[in-house]
Structures are given as C-alpha cells and as structure tokens.
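Build the 3D complex.
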Amino acid sequence: MSASAPVQAIDPVTGAPLPEEYPSATAAEVDEACRRAADAFEVYRATPAAVRAELLRAVARGLETEAAEIIERAHRESALPLARLQGEMGRTCTQLRLFATVLDEGSWVEARIDTADPARQPLPKPDVRSMRRPLGPVAVFGASNFPLAFSVAGGDTAAALASGNPVLAKAHPAHPGTCARVGRVLAAAVHEAGLPAGVFTLLFDAGYDVGSALVRHPQVAAVAFTGSRAGGEALMRLAASRPRPIPVYAEMGSVNPVLILPGALAARGPAIAAGLHGSFTLGVGQFCTNPGVVLLEEGAAGDAFLAALAEKTASTASGAMLTPGICRAYQEGQDHLAARGAERVAQGAEGTAATGASAALWQVAGARALAEPELLEEVFGPSTLAVRYRDRAQLESLLRSLEGNLTATVHAEPAELQEIAPLLHLLETKAGRLLINQFPTGVEVCPAMVHGGPFPATSDGRSTSVGTRAIERFTRFVAWQGFPQDALPPELQDGNPLGIWRLVDGAWGQQALFARR
Amino acid sequence: MSASAPVQAIDPVTGAPLPEEYPSATAAEVDEACRRAADAFEVYRATPAAVRAELLRAVARGLETEAAEIIERAHRESALPLARLQGEMGRTCTQLRLFATVLDEGSWVEARIDTADPARQPLPKPDVRSMRRPLGPVAVFGASNFPLAFSVAGGDTAAALASGNPVLAKAHPAHPGTCARVGRVLAAAVHEAGLPAGVFTLLFDAGYDVGSALVRHPQVAAVAFTGSRAGGEALMRLAASRPRPIPVYAEMGSVNPVLILPGALAARGPAIAAGLHGSFTLGVGQFCTNPGVVLLEEGAAGDAFLAALAEKTASTASGAMLTPGICRAYQEGQDHLAARGAERVAQGAEGTAATGASAALWQVAGARALAEPELLEEVFGPSTLAVRYRDRAQLESLLRSLEGNLTATVHAEPAELQEIAPLLHLLETKAGRLLINQFPTGVEVCPAMVHGGPFPATSDGRSTSVGTRAIERFTRFVAWQGFPQDALPPELQDGNPLGIWRLVDGAWGQQALFARR
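Done.
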C-alpha cells in the first residue's frame, strides 16, 4: 500500500494552502510505529507514577515555551481567534498538570487489599489485592475544533500517558502544522525523560488509511476519537470487527437540548436569550456542547423570547469555520432544516471568508419535530432550533424522542424545578451532564466533570473525556493473589509507601498495614 | 415468529428427560418483557439504595427458604454433587448480601463534588457534582457450570439489581427447572418490595431466538454472559451491530496457565502435583478458572513431577459432565490435542454416566506449542496440557503467545520470583488475576477480586464479574451542574445524609459540606 498524498493545511479564511507539507505515513511506517509503541509499553507501564507525572509537567512546560509559535500556526490553520487559542493552550497545560497531580495523589488506581485469613472455615481466605493498570498503546484521533486541548497533547493523550499507555496520535489533517509542533514538544519530553521514543508517535495522513491501520493493528489496545458521528461509527465498526476487539471512546454528535420553562422566561427572559445566543454562536458554534435544540412553549412569552433571540442572531457577525468541509456540512444542515419544515426566524451577517458561516435561528412546531426526528440531529455550527411544544405531554414526548447527548440544560424557577422533577429524572437518561440555569458550552476541567453521554453522544457512555476521571478510561483492573510484598506494586504493599487512599479489608484509609506474615 | 419447542431438562447421568416443560417465549413476549423492564427502570432507578439493599437481602432469604428444593433440582439437572450445590447456594446468598452491604456503605457511586467559585477569573467556577447511575435493563445469560452463583440470581443479576437496573434473565436450557424456581423467588421478592414486576423477568427458550431478540431490543442497555467463546462472540457481534451499540460483558474461554519453576518443583513437587490435580479435576474440570496449560521445564525433575501427576490422573474417578453437548465438546477437545501432536500421559477411569468424562493429562514440547497455537486454546473439562519448555527464552516465547486469560499462576521459590520479575510483568498483560503458589480455581468473593481479563477471557477486560467491583459494570457517570440541593441525589447533597465517602474539592472524606449558598 503506498501512502496518500502529503498533508497540507488550508487557510480557512482565504482558502489558500499554507506552507509546509507533512508526508503521509506508509503502511510499513504505521506497523513499525505500533510495534515500537508495544515495545515501549513494556518499559513505560513499569514506570513509577512520579515519572509519568514529571513527563506530563515537562510536556506542559515545553508547550508553554513554544506557545507563541504553536498558537500562531493553530490560528492560521483553524481561523480560531488568537485569544481563544491562548485560552485553549492554558487549558491544555492545565489538563496535563492536573493529571500529574492525580498521579501524585494516587487514589485513581483504586487500590484494594483483602488480607488473608488462613484459619477461615471451610477454606482459608487468600490475600487478594487489585488496582488499575494500563491497557496498552492508545490510538488518539484529535478533534478539528480544539486543535490544542482535544488534539495531539489534549485530554486523551494526557489521560493515556498518565495511566501508563503509549500514544499513537493521528495528526488532524486540518491542523497538521499545529500537530507537528505539539508532537515535537511531546517527543522531546519523552526523550528527555529517558523513556523509549515509542511512548509517543505522531503520524500524518491525508486520507483514512493510517487511521484505519491503527485501529486494526494487533498491538493497539484502545482508541480515542473526537469528531463526527460517521467517523466515530466507522472506527467503532473497525474495532468491533478485529479478531481481538478493543475499546473505542468516540465522542460524536450532540444537540445539547435546552429546556426553558415559562417561569424562567417570565423572570429573566432577556438574560436567558443573551446567554443562549452567546452559547450557540460561541466559536462560530463549533463546540460539541453547542445548544442545538431549544425547547420553548408555544405562546406569546416564547414568541417574545424568540424575537429577542432573533434580534441578536441577526446582528451576529459571520465567522470563518474550521475547514471547507465543516462549512459545507453546516450549509447542508441548514438546507435540511428548511427541507424538513423548520422556519428560519433570523440569520446573521454573511461574511467574506472562504469558510464563512452565518448564525441562524430556526423554529419548528413540536408535532413536526416528533414526526421528523431528523430535525433533532446535530447541525455543527452557529445555528439553533427552537422546538415549540404545545403542552406538558408534548414536551415529555419530545424529551423522550431525544437521542443521547453530552449535556441537557433546564432554565427554571425554583417552584418549577420541583414540578418538573420527573422530567429532570428523564433527562438524566439522555445526557452525561445536566445543567440548571447555566449554559452547556465551557466545560470545567475538574474531578467531578463528566463529558460523555449515551450513544450517539459517545460510543461508550460509561466514560468521560474531560476531567480527572478520564484517567480511568485506558485502564483495567488486575488482581494479585498470594504475592510476597516485594513482588507487589508499591500501591498495594502493606507499608503503603505512596501514602494513597485504599480500601483495606472493607475500610477506606491511607494507613500502612502491619505485616501479618 | 413462532416460539421454539418448550425447554426440557436432561438428566446428565441417565440421559433421560426430566419432568416439567417450560414454554419458550415468543417474540411478542420478549418485546413485552423488554418494554415492561424499561417502564420499571423509571421507577427502580429512583429507589433509594436502602430499598435495593433490602430487595437483595429478601432474595437471599427467599433462596434459603427454598434451598432444599432448588438444590435438589439443580443436582438432577447438572449432575453437580449436592455438597457442591449447597456451597454454591451459600455463595449465591453471600453475594447478594455482599452487594447489599456495598449499597449500605455507599462509596461505590464514586460521588465527587467540586464546589462553585463565583469570583474565579477569568470565568466563574461552576458547581459540578457527579456519581454512578444505572444504565437500564440488563440481559443476563447465566452459565451452565454454576446453576446458582452465575445464573438467574447470580453475580450479574445481583450487580445489576444493586446498581438500579432491571434484569431480563434468559434461563439456561440445561437447568430450566432450577432457573424457574430461583426466578420465582426473585419475582416474589420484587413483588413484596412493592416494586414493578418488570424489575425482574425470566424468559425461557430452547433455541437462540429469545437471546438474540433480547440483545437486539432497543430497550436493553447492557448484556452479561458467561459461557463459550462462540456464544460470547455472537452476542458481541449482535450488540455492536445495533443502531445503538451497548456494552457486553461476556466471560468466555481461558486456559489459566500455571508456570512451575524448577526451584518450586524441587522444594515441593509432590504438594504442587496434588494441588494441581485437585484444581484441574475439580467439579469434572468445569470451572472457568480450570488450569488447562502447565508450563514445565524439560528434564528429569519435570518428568518426575509429571509422573506423580499421571499417577493421580490415572486414579481419578470419572464424573458426569453438565450436558451432553459439553461432554461431546470435551471429547472433541481431547481428539484435537492428539491430532495436533500432544501426547496423552495418563487418563482417568471411564464412567457409565451418559455424560461421563475421564480426566486426562497431556504433554507437548514447547516448540510444538509455539508452532501450533491452537494447542493453547481452552478444552473445557478435566484435562490439562503440560507444555515442556526448553529454556528461559522459549518460556518467554510461550508466555507471549498466550491469549488473554482470567488467571495466570506461578509456583516459585522466593529467589526465583525476583529472577523472573520480567515474566511476572509480562503475565500481567495476559490475565486479570495473578497468583503465586496457589491454584486458580476457587474465586474469593471480596472487594479486591478481579474475575475478568483480556480478550478472549472476557469481551471487556476493564470489568470483573466477581467481587464488589462488579457493581460498577452496569453504570455510567452522570454530572449535575448548578443544581439546587433538593434537586440533587442524596449522595451529592451538601449535608451528605448517607454519610458516604466522597471526593470534595479534591479531598476524600465523609463529612458534610457547610452550605455555601
């Protein structure tokens, strides 16, 4: 198999190619990279947590050193504003350092110890200890819309490296120069830590061969992907059809429904309209948590709210989208809304960029949305659809008809919240994160965050791609039975040399065990 | 689609049908059962943990009340000895009560709270809280070899019910009468708890239609299976090909390699031979942790060990296997070992039961096993294969050639353990549980247990089907952002009314939070 053409970035604003070409990897190069990653795994998974924490911190320092050049290149490749990219760079480094603190703290391994009882009847009780261990080389496919925080050194890479897995990153073809620069920082940090080069590999491809070969490779143990539903489902099928199926964490589409109840509308309609407008047009609507469906009661109050939102939408400047393909898909999504009977309430300014997109506000009757469920599918971009529900029964039907989402939001007054408790309860089955009186864009990177959700928001709703729980996704539990102390990982030794929280004979604590043998 | 013929059990000892027929469910009945389970989920997932704990305890009490009849029937259907089934009944009730104590203790939800900081720059920090929540109706396919502990009221049912999921159990066609009796106990406990009947449903089928319809049904959210690799892989394919793919926890084949090092052989060869013989012939070899491959160095010490093991094997009484199909598969497995060049070292007594199986000890040269990797596949039954390795390099090659296993065992003297540290490290990637100087059969039900392992031992090596961690398998994380106290689950409320361990602003504790709002 010969490699695809080299990868070259396109300036989304001008439509012109940007300098620098990145050769697509050949099949032999992919195979070699996977074998090197597997070899590196034998070393890397045995590293103390402190070594991995220092690696993550070194990557963060390296990114900060190269930040100006990386951000400048990301700006040219993605058309994302410099200020936004500066924030995203900060978040990327924060994520890396956050996982380092998780490693320092140590309880993420979920160490458990059940000590032996040789006198137990009818059979002696064995000594059993267990904790999380890494899966193996992880193939990471970054997102177009976060060229830093969800790309080569993004959350999935940080989580995989933190828990002891080598990373095989596939450079996003829309921002290859950003990927190359970030990849150099990662490779240098791996080298300076004295770790095998196979701990981190960056591969380029203008087509799909490299990605497909990675997911099929016998040495690859897990896949992380952020992108379109079609792309994610293709990787899921590939992974499931392997002789040895492997986990896939694909983050795909989400309409992030927002329900606005009448009391909230009456109490603070203008503020909600301003917040919603800011949320659905933020970053030219290119957030996975973008609110794409707004549930709004029929009637005068909802009409007035929509009028306010329409005014803001109409005065929204055009923005350049990330790629020509994303821009085309946005336009098609708009056409589909119209073809399926939605009414365009307002449209923002048209722009001059090659990938320019206008904000759009749509509405449709609840009955129509129930009859045409495709209306409730994601349109990636600065557009939102107000679904006007007739009554509580229709609202419930609409909520039930939703697919899985990353988020679901309710704007309500306190008295309304109690009244709609059953609907909140229903929404819990439809999303990974529920919000009250806030907006879904802007995902806090913190221990409690869940950025995941039922299919098709993600391929595996049991996990999260943001927040410290993400360190768990590339691990499995391993138990050691009857092991002498010096053959156990430090996390499971009697003396608790790392001082981590553990569950010992059913009780949580950070204590050492007194030797029983 | 019309239903299959009724299910009728066969006495494995006589080959004659046992009384009682169980009608196979029709497609309409399966659909109705899944809808009822989905309706029941809306109620059941909102139950306090204490209600579910009491349900599990009521099931255990009900089983104890009916134990004599259930055990008698299981004995006739499975040919397993009464004493073994009494032990298994005890374990089944212990499992149910253990999950109840996990619910009482409460930390299994992994509650995390990150409190708000409205003054944070550049953006306010939101209040985010998260914990585990149930997935939805779980289809449970029990095992033939544990008609109680891994069947209708077994570990998967207990774990699913504990975490708030309704169960749709498919009765095992080899022990339908046991399933029916246990199912009645479960249904009665659900009824007496005032819960909807859809919380637990038992379905019979002489064929595969019901199982396949369950796995494909839109309302089914997860699948648990214990059985053959072919069966597990069929369910994995079905689940992956659904419009909305769902998790499958299939526990399949495992050869449970046992490595016996020369020092251990010299120090206590006869004791290891006795233990190994007991382990591979226990219950007519019908354990998923049965040691099917023994790695033994070439030479006189290994020969003497094998001679001792051969003597024990030759004097092993025949036992009745669980079903005619399992007995046929065992015989075919023996034929395959011979056809692939293994040498039969010893064979146990032949019996008269319709499903009678003789114990068998085989050996093969390491080079041959490397050339014929099918030799290292599971043969379910009282047979084990000694693979004679030539040197350390060949041993390492053999260990690398192993597929994923539930367990891997090493018998070694202390000095040898240090010397083979790299091999122990390698074995960690091949199994869910590692043992030193013990035997893999007999799986302790405890917090630290991991009964899982890389494919093909299980479909999803991230999980365990035994021990309290199993409560996590049918859950996903959900986050609540900006919620008022009374709209939060009790586990996440400031006051910590359940007194559970939580991670609050990065610190573990059982304390209440002082109200900040």
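The first helix of chain B runs from residue 27 to 44.
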